[in-house]
Amino acid sequence: MPALEITESDKIYKIVNARLLLEHKIVENSYLWFQNGKIIHPQNLFFSARRDADEIIDAKGLLVVPGFIDTQINGSYGIDFADHEEPVDVLKKNIDKVAKGLLQYGCTAFCPTIVSSAPEVYEKVLPLLNHRKGTATGGAEILGAHLEGPFISVLKKGAHKQSVFKDAKNGIKDFDDVYGSELLKGSQAVSIITMAPEIDGVCDAIPDLVARGITVSMGHSACRIAEAEEAVTKGSTSITHLFNAMQAFHHRDPGLIGVLGAADLPIPKNGASHPEASNTSPDRQKPDPRPFYGLICDGVHVHPNSIRIAYYSHPTGAILVTDTLSAAGLPSGIYQLGGSEVEVVEDGAAYIKGSTTLAGSTITIDQCIRNFQKFTNCPLVEAIEAATLHPARLLGIDKKKGTLNVGGDADLVFLDDSTGEIVVKRVFVAGEEVKR
């Protein structure tokens, strides 16, 4: 009887001579198997299919980790996701250009971010940012958009245009009116919404947004600690770029930052979209009720000492984000962010032109990991998990992203950490290697 022909999609791959990040540990001299873009268990091959690997991939001692996930990125390579003036076919090509460019840094999935905009912007752009699988040739996976505003505070507007700011006195209806019909798709179109909990009606709308599968993040806010804790109890599970665009920490009312020290928030009934327990959790046996928090680790947005304080107070809540704008990957100069002019100076920091107001970064996600490890002196595993497991848990996709567990997507990054700092060497998206 002739042997069955194995198609390319059916091929079984085995990674050998690898050090794998598994279950919060680095496992030496291990193997990883994948097929059809998914990580598989070899036992089923031997005892059911009676097959061995069709192709061996020699990791040559490199560290193999899940693909990095960036939940806040406004654009790169001269492209701003809030740009809506070009024809749709041009916008699609621009999105593809960013998605492809991110792969070189190990970023295999991302949330394209739109700063506060008018309804017509969302109407045109959001359909282009729906969830889309990643490929080695097509670019990083799109996880749905991150909508940063316009339900935010005038007092902490940052680089956002105040003229489009909204309140939510009519609850979820106001969100639907601003974002349009795409919001009804839930996380298929919109993965995260950043909002200020003190704005009229915002807290009341949180349960409705969460019911649609949308992650609610607190940010660009002048809220007090009580308002922040109310938002968490109603379903908010994240803080957008901690320390930036929020009240400075004060010992009598620590504001939004103070949620990291909360000890009496209700314990989640299940662990979905919540940080895992740590030594600082209110209950060390159950998921942590405190929210995740984004950190821009470029050394400009947040002082290293502040990042260290946040990490030691709530280690499993840290999520590394780039918050890059259109200037990322380009030289110093003047660029666009949501219709505003932004100036990038020599150290890579971006400011609203003619001011000292920060307006995003130009850092890469692999550099964020290197900086985070250096700033906090945390173990390498924890630095990597802040860009893999933690964002996956935040979005409720940790069954398929952020780990190397069986059944997960074969989004893989091969790292050389021989110098003590990670260097991206190889990248796979859905089991297919990216040509470098």
Automatic annotation (TrEMBL):
Zn(2+) binds at E148, H220, H241. Binds 1 divalent metal cation per subunit. The active site is at D323. InterPro entries: Amidohydro-rel, GlcNAc_6-P_deAcase, Metal-dep_hydrolase_composite, Metal_Hydrolase. GO terms for molecular function: metal ion binding; N-acetylglucosamine-6-phosphate deacetylase activity. GO terms for biological process: N-acetylglucosamine catabolic process. Pfam families: Amidohydro_1. Its cofactor is a divalent metal cation. Residues 268-289 are annotated as: Disordered. Coiled coil: none annotated. It comes from the Eukaryota. SUPFAM superfamilies: Composite domain of metallo-dependent hydrolases (SSF51338), Metallo-dependent hydrolases (SSF51556). It catalyses: N-acetyl-D-glucosamine 6-phosphate + H2O = D-glucosamine 6-phosphate + acetate. Belongs to the metallo-dependent hydrolases superfamily. NagA family. This is N-acetylglucosamine-6-phosphate deacetylase. It comes from Mucor saturninus. The lineage of its organism: Eukaryota, Fungi, Fungi incertae sedis, Mucoromycota, Mucoromycotina.
